[in-house]
Amino acid sequence: MKTSKEYYEKLKSMKPNVYIGGEVVKRDDARLKPGINVISLTYDLATNPKFEKLLTATSHLTGEKINRFTNIHHSVDDLLKKQEMTRTLCRMCGGCIQRCMGIDAMNALSAVTYGVDQRFGTDYNKRYLKYLQWFQKNDIAANCAQTDVKGDRSKRPHEQKDPDMYLRVVERRKDGIVVRGAKAHNTIAGYAEEIIVTPTRFLTPEEKDWAVAFAIPADWDNVHLVCRVTNPRERKKLDAPISHVGDVESLTIFDDTFIPNDRIFLNGEVEAAGILALLFALFHRHSYTGCKPAIGDITMGYTALVAEYNGVEDAKHVQAKLADLISTTELVYASGIAAAYTSTKDASGTYIPNTVYCNVGRRHAGINTYHEAEILADIAGGLAATLPYEEDFYNPKVGPLLNKYIMRKADVPAENIHRCYRAIGDAICSGLAGVMQIAGVHGGGSPVMEEIAILKQYDIKQRKEIAKYLSGIRKDMPV
Amino acid sequence: MKTSKEYYEKLKSMKPNVYIGGEVVKRDDARLKPGINVISLTYDLATNPKFEKLLTATSHLTGEKINRFTNIHHSVDDLLKKQEMTRTLCRMCGGCIQRCMGIDAMNALSAVTYGVDQRFGTDYNKRYLKYLQWFQKNDIAANCAQTDVKGDRSKRPHEQKDPDMYLRVVERRKDGIVVRGAKAHNTIAGYAEEIIVTPTRFLTPEEKDWAVAFAIPADWDNVHLVCRVTNPRERKKLDAPISHVGDVESLTIFDDTFIPNDRIFLNGEVEAAGILALLFALFHRHSYTGCKPAIGDITMGYTALVAEYNGVEDAKHVQAKLADLISTTELVYASGIAAAYTSTKDASGTYIPNTVYCNVGRRHAGINTYHEAEILADIAGGLAATLPYEEDFYNPKVGPLLNKYIMRKADVPAENIHRCYRAIGDAICSGLAGVMQIAGVHGGGSPVMEEIAILKQYDIKQRKEIAKYLSGIRKDMPV
Amino acid sequence: MKTSKEYYEKLKSMKPNVYIGGEVVKRDDARLKPGINVISLTYDLATNPKFEKLLTATSHLTGEKINRFTNIHHSVDDLLKKQEMTRTLCRMCGGCIQRCMGIDAMNALSAVTYGVDQRFGTDYNKRYLKYLQWFQKNDIAANCAQTDVKGDRSKRPHEQKDPDMYLRVVERRKDGIVVRGAKAHNTIAGYAEEIIVTPTRFLTPEEKDWAVAFAIPADWDNVHLVCRVTNPRERKKLDAPISHVGDVESLTIFDDTFIPNDRIFLNGEVEAAGILALLFALFHRHSYTGCKPAIGDITMGYTALVAEYNGVEDAKHVQAKLADLISTTELVYASGIAAAYTSTKDASGTYIPNTVYCNVGRRHAGINTYHEAEILADIAGGLAATLPYEEDFYNPKVGPLLNKYIMRKADVPAENIHRCYRAIGDAICSGLAGVMQIAGVHGGGSPVMEEIAILKQYDIKQRKEIAKYLSGIRKDMPV
Amino acid sequence: MKTSKEYYEKLKSMKPNVYIGGEVVKRDDARLKPGINVISLTYDLATNPKFEKLLTATSHLTGEKINRFTNIHHSVDDLLKKQEMTRTLCRMCGGCIQRCMGIDAMNALSAVTYGVDQRFGTDYNKRYLKYLQWFQKNDIAANCAQTDVKGDRSKRPHEQKDPDMYLRVVERRKDGIVVRGAKAHNTIAGYAEEIIVTPTRFLTPEEKDWAVAFAIPADWDNVHLVCRVTNPRERKKLDAPISHVGDVESLTIFDDTFIPNDRIFLNGEVEAAGILALLFALFHRHSYTGCKPAIGDITMGYTALVAEYNGVEDAKHVQAKLADLISTTELVYASGIAAAYTSTKDASGTYIPNTVYCNVGRRHAGINTYHEAEILADIAGGLAATLPYEEDFYNPKVGPLLNKYIMRKADVPAENIHRCYRAIGDAICSGLAGVMQIAGVHGGGSPVMEEIAILKQYDIKQRKEIAKYLSGIRKDMPV
Fold this sequence. Notes:
homotetramer; Butyryl-CoA Dehydrogenase, subunit A, domain 3; 6-stranded mixed β-sheet; 4-stranded mixed β-sheet; 15 helices
C-alpha cells in the first residue's frame, strides 16, 4: 500500500496535460491541492488504527493486504464494508471521497471481461487480471471516464452529425487502437494516476466502433484534461478541514489517442457495451448508498449544531426536520445494506449488488438532494448568505462589534458561531455547494436513469397477475 | 397446526360478546365472515406446498413444526422470513393479513418478561413460556390490544379526570387482578381466540396501576368487543377474491375484568411498561415493512393493468408513476431487510430488529399512503368513482350498452375491464379504502410516532461532532 | 325563479329513464333524494335574505331577476360573484353544489355559438338565445354531458374500431339529427331537468360527425341515465346536514336519439368543437376555484374542531397543517379572483376568465386533493376509521361505556365528539369520500389536462428570449 | 427624477463607511459596481419609452411625475403596477431589483405614522410627509433595515443578556436620540442613499426603548456597513447582462448613532412597533409576488432554452416540469393580483394589500425556491457544474476541441450553447446562486413567518362553525 506522500510524488512526476483557465499546468498547481487532499485521506487513514480494518482488504489474487479501494468484492461483507468505508470517509472529508469510481469500474470490468471471454473466446479477462494485480500492488487512484458528451440527444451514436460525439475507435492497428472523443464530468481525473474508459450506453450492431473499454495513465499522449476547479473560499484565520477539500471536474479529450492491446478490455463487442455501462453504474450507485448518507450526516450535523447555538434545537419543527433528514439518510443506507445482503455471485466470482435496491436508494438520494439543502437553509437562516468576510471579524474597529453581534446563547463563544456559519456558508452558499447539489442529482446517474433501470428489471407483470387474481380475471393464485 | 375449519369451529363455540350495530352477535354472523376469511388464509396456506416453507417454523421450545405466526424469532433469517411471509400473504388477500399483531406481541413479551424477571426477581417469563407453548401447540390467532382511548391528550394517565381513560388495575386479589378501561382500534379482535393486552406508553412512578400486561380468551367475562365492520360491496355476479375479505375493528372494553395470575405478564413494574410498548411497536413496524410493500404491489398491479387496458401503459408519465410506486415499495422493504440484517440478540435469545431502519421504513410507508391511492386514481380515471352498478351490466336493455361503452382496447373483453374497474373502485373508492388509508397512516403508529422513536435512538450528537470537526470547532477527528 | 318544491314536482313528472341497480326508477326514488337535496339548496337559498344578493342576478336578455345559476357573465363582478356563490353554497352543503356545470356550459355556448355564426353564417346563436331565455325564466337545473367514453385511448374518434366511442351524428334529417354514443361521469344528470351536450376534444376535418352540441330534456326518448348513487351512511339518531347530501353519477347513453333543430348548437363545424370543449372546461375550472376552496374550508373546519376537542389545537404541528390547508385553499381562490380580474370580453359580450390563472388554480386544487384528506386523517387519528356503529352508542349495556370512553376534554359533551368523528368518517372514510377524492383529481379535467391547457397558452418563447438576453445570446432587451 | 449617473455621483460623494474584507472602501469600489448596476436600471428604464409608463407615477403630494419606487399606493392600480414593475425589472436584471424595500418601508410608515398620531397625538406623520416629499423629489434609493441580530432566540429583547441584540434607544436628548444595535441582511445598504430603520417584532410595554423607527443617510456618523459582496464570476470574453449584476448584503451597525428629531418616526410607542414591523413585511411580501414570478420566468427561460438546445424540449417530462414552473410562477403572481384587488384603504389613504393573499403567495414562492433550482439542474444536466473555464475555450489547442464537443443540435452555434450553460452555471452553481436560494427562502420573511401571519389573520373559527353545522353540533347555518 502507498502513502499519500508517494501518491503526491507520483503526481508531480506526471507529464503536464491538465488545463486550467486557458493554460497547461503541472499537477502541483495549488488549485489542485484541495482535490488531492481528498484522495490523500484514502491513503493516510488506511494505516490509521481507527480506520485500518475498514479501509483495507485482502487481495483475492495475491492474498496480500490491499487498500479496499482496489478490492474486488467477493462476499456480501465486502460490499457492506465498501458501503461503510464510503460513508466513513465522506464524513471525514466533508463531501465526496472521489476514489470510488475507480474501484467501481474495476469491479464492473471483473465481471464483464469474464463474461465476454466466455461468450466470444476473447482474452480480455486475462489482460484485466494482470492489470488488476498491478493496480492493487501500486494502490492506484483511478478515474472512470464514462459519460460521453452525446451531442444531439435525440440521435444515437452512429446517427450524430459528428460521429465523435461518443468516443470511438478511429483506427485499428496490430498493437492497439486509436480512439477519438471526449468524456465529461470526470471527477478526480486531474489528479488520478489512471483513467479507465467504459461505454456510456447500450449499442446497436452498427455501433461496433463505439463499443470500447480500456485503461491508460492519466498523462498519456494525446489525452487532454480540461479541468474546472471548485474549491471553497480560502480561510485566513479560521482554518478548518472543510476549507482544504475541493472538487475538480475534467472534460477529458481523447485526441486520436493510441491504446496498446494490453490495456484494452472491450473492442467491438456491442452486446457487452450496455452491460458494462449498466454494471459500472450499478456498483457506483451502490457506492452512492454510502456517500449520500454521509452528506446527510453532515447536513444534519450542521442543522443540529446551528439550532443548538440559536437555542432552538428542541423546537418541534426543528426536530421534525431532523427526523426528515435522518429518514432520507437511513432509507438510502438501508437500501445499500439490502442490496449487499441480496447480492448475487457472478460467474467471475464478483458479487453484484441487487439492482432494484441500489437504484431505489440512489434515486431517493437524488430526489432529496435539494430538499436537504433547503432544510439546512431553513434552520440556519439568512446569515448563511450574509455573513461578513472573515477579515472584518479581525478589523480593529468593526471586528469586536461583529463578535458582539454574532452572539447567540451566552455560553457559546463568538468564534464557534462564526465557524459554524462559515462552514454552513461553504455547504449551501458557494460554488462548491452548487457542484455538490448538481452532483447529488446527476452523479452516478440522474433519478430518471434509476427509474429506467428499475423499470427494466422489475417484475411488473407479476404485480398485474396479482391484480388479475384479486379482481377475478384469473382464477388461480399467482405466487 | 390447526386448519381453518378448526379455527372456525372454535370461533363458533365462543361466548357471544361481540357487538355490531347495537346488538350482541355470535361469531358466525355473516358480517364477520370476510374478516374470518383473511385469518383462514394463514391456516390454509401453511399446508399448501407452495407456501409451507415460508409459513411454518420450528418451535424453539418443543422443536415441533409450528405456524410462523406463533414463532419467536431466533435468527436474522426468522425476521426476514416473517417479513417475506407478511408480504406474500397480504398480496394473496389483497390487504392486511391481520394476524401479525398477535405474534408481534408475543415476541415483545418474550424479551420483556425475561428482562423484568432478571431485574425484579419476578416470574413472568415462566408464565409466559407456558402460555407460549400452549399458544404454539394450539396455533392461536391473537389480537394485541395496545392503544388506550387516552381521553384528554394534554394529560398523563394519572392526571385524567376519569382515570379509566388508560386501562388500569382497579383491584388486586390473591388469585389475580381486576382491570378497567378500553383499548381502541383492535383489528381482528372480533374473531381472535385470544387478546393480549400491553401498555401504550411510558409511565411514571405514580402510574403503577397502569403498568399491566396480560392475555385472556377473547370471549372472557366482562370483556365487550364493540365492532365496526367494513366489508367491500357484495358482488352478485363478478365474484372475486377481493370481495371476500374485510376489516373489523373493535373498541375492546374491560368492564372490571378479572385476570388470573397465570395470564398476567406485567403488574406494576412501571419501568418496563414503556419498553414493552415500544418493543411491541418495533416488531409491529417491522411487520409493516412486509405488509406495506404488498399494498404497493397491489396498487402498482392495478395501475399497470388499467393502464394496459386503456392502451397507455408505455406512456412516459405512467412509467414514471410506476417507478414512483416501485421506489416507495422497495425502499420500505429494503428497510425491513436492513432491520433484520442488523438485528440484535436479546438476553432472552429473541432477535430484535434495528430500531432506526424499522422506523424509517414504517414512516416512509405512512407518508406515502395517500400518495399511492392518488397515483392509482390518477391513472384509472373517473370511472373508478362512476362505474354503474353490477346489476345494470346484466339488465337486458342497458346491460349490452354498458358492455359496449366500457370497451377499451379491442382485444380486452368487456368483463375484464369491468372486473378491473370494480376492483379498483373497492381499492380506492369505498369505505374499506378509507379504512385502509387511515390504517396506512396510523396503524402500528403514525409517522410522527416513528419520528419520535427515531429521534430517541439516533446519535445526533455524533453528527454534531462531525460538524464541529469539519468546521474546526473541535480539532480531532470523531470516529 | 323557481322554488325547490316546484323543482321536485317537475322531477316527479318526468318519464322514468333512470337506471339504478338493474332497474328503471322514478325520480322520487329515495336513493336520489340526497342529490336532489343539494340542488334544492340552490333554489331555497336564492330567496333567503342572507344569500339572495349573491345567488341572484339580472338577466341581460330580459332585465329580470334570475337565479345566478342561469346567468351569463357580463362583467368582472359577475365572474367574481359566481366564484363566491360557488364557495358559499359548497360550504353549506358540505361538498359539490353540482349545479355549476349547467351554467358553465351555457356561458361557453354563449360565446361559441356567436363566433360560429360570425364565421360560418349559421344561426346557432339565435337558437341559443331563445333557449337561454326559456332556461332563465324556468330556472333550469341542467347537466352538461361532455366526457365521451373514449374507447382505446391511443386512437382518435374516427380511428376507433367502434365509432360510437365518441358521441356522433348517425343520421341527418330535415327536422333534426339522430345521435349515438355515451357520455360518462355526468353528475346531477339523474335529477337534472335538461342535459346539455358538448364535444370533448379538438377534432380533425374528417370528424364532422363528432362535432355536435345540443340540449334536451333529461327524460327525452332514447336517453338512458345509468346512475351510480353514493350517499353517506344513513343516520338513525345523529341527524346532521352532512347526512342528507349525496352524489349521483350517470353514464348517459344516447341510443339513436333524435335532436330537433332548435335544440342543436353545433353540427359539423369541426373547427369549433375543440374551442367549445376548452371553453366549457375553462368556465368549469373557474367554478372549481370556488368549490375547491369550500372543500378546503370544510376540511380545515373538521381538522381544527377535532384538534380542539382532543386538546391539541395549539400544537405546532397542528398549526402548521392548518396553515398548509389555508394556503392551498386561498391560493386556489386567489387564482380565481385573478382570472376574473384579468378576464376578457368576448365578441358576444360574454366575459371569459383568464386561461392561465384558471388552470394553475384548478391544477393546484387537484394535486392537493389527497393531501388534504391526509392532513385530516393525520390529525383526527384512527377513530375516524374505527368508530363503532351509531346504534351501539344507544345500546343499554355498551352505550354508556362508549360515551364514557369517547370523552376527550372534560367540557366537550360525548355527543359532540361522537358527531364530530362521525362526520369526519363520512368525509374521509366512506364511499362518498372516495368519490369526492377522485372528483377532486379528475372533475373538470385532471391536473395533466390543466398542464396541457397551460402549456398551449403560455408564452414560453418570451421566457426563452429573456434567457437569451440575460446570457448575451441576443443583445437587445426583450420586453 | 434622477439619472443613474447622478445616483452614482451621489454615491461617490458619500463618506466611506463601507467595510469589505477588513477594510473601509469608498462607494466606487469595483466590488460594489454590480450591485450599483442593478439600482441604475431603476433610473435608466424610468425614462425609456418602453418602460416609462410602468416605472413612473404621479406624486399624491405634489402632482409631479415621480419614479414609482418613491410612490405611495393610493389605488388598486398602484399596487398592481408596483407588482408588475417589480416582475418586469427583475426579469431585466436577472434577479432581485433591490430597490423595493425602500418604498415598501415608506408605504408602511405612511399608514403607521398617521395611525400613531391619531392615537397618541404625536406629529410623526408631519415629519414623515416632509421626508417623503424630499424622498420623491430626490428620487432616493433607500434600504430598509429591519431584522435585528436577535441573540438568543429563546429570549425577548428585554430579556437578552446583552440588551443591544435588538436595536434600541440608549439616550434621549432634546434634539434627538442615540441608538445602538445592529441590523442584519441589509441588501442594497452599501450603495443606498438612505437607510430606513423599523422594528422587527411585536414588543411588550417594558420594551419602549426598542420601539423606534427612523431614517438617516447611509453614510451617517457612527454607522458601519459591514458588507458581504457576492458577484458572479467575471467574464473575459462572453460578456452578458447576467455578469454585471451582483448582490451586497450589509450587517449595519449603529454604534451609538445620533438621530435628529425630524428623522424619527416612532419613539417609544410599543403598541405600534409590531404593526409597523408587520406592515412593512406585508408590503414587502406583496413585492415578492412580483419578483418571485420573475425568477420563475428566468428559470423557465433557461430550462426551456437548454432543453431546446439539447433537442428534448418536447419530451413529456420536460413539458411537465415547465408546467410545474409556470404553475408556481403564476399562482404566486395571481395571489399578488388578488391581494391588490382586495386591498383596503387605510385611514391615511394608503392602500394596504390583503394579508392572506400576500402571505400565501410569498409562502408558496418560498417553499418552491429550491425546487425550482432542482428542475433547472435536472434538465440542464451535469455540465452546469462541470463547464470548463471560459479561457480554455480560447486556448489554441483545446479551445477548438471544446467548441467541437459542446455541440448539440447542429443548427445551434457552439458559442450559444456555451453562453447558455455559463449563464445556467451562474444561476444554480455559484455563490450568487446560493445567496438567491437562501434569499428565496428567508427574504421578506421565511415561510414559517408567513404561516404565523396567516394563522393570526385567518378566521379558523368560522370554519369550525361550518364543521359544527354540517355535523349537527350547531343547528343554524353559519354565514
